[in-house]
Amino acid sequence: MSATLISNARIFNGVSVVTDSGHVLIESGRISRISLRDPLPIPEGCTVVDATGCTLLPGLIDAHVHVYQDVNLLETAIQYGVTTVLDMHNEPEWFQDISKVTKQRNDVSDVKSCGFGATIKDGWPAAIVKLVSQEPKVEERISKWPNLTDRASIEGFIARNRAAGASFTKLMQEDGHTMNLPFPTIPVPTPSVEIQRAIVDASHENGMLTIAHALTNHSTLSVLEAGVDGLAHASIEPINEQVVKAFKKNNAFLVPTLAVHASCSGEEQESREKFSANLEGTAKEHLLGCLHITREEFTIKNVYEQVFTLKEAGIDILCGTDTSTDLLGTRAGASVHHELWMYVNRCHFTPQEALISATSKTADRFKLADRGKIEEGRLADLLLVGGNPAESIDAIADIQGVWRNGERLARKM
Ligand SMILES: [Zn+2]
Question: Is there a single domain that holds both residue 146 and residue 172?
Answer without folding.
Answer: yes
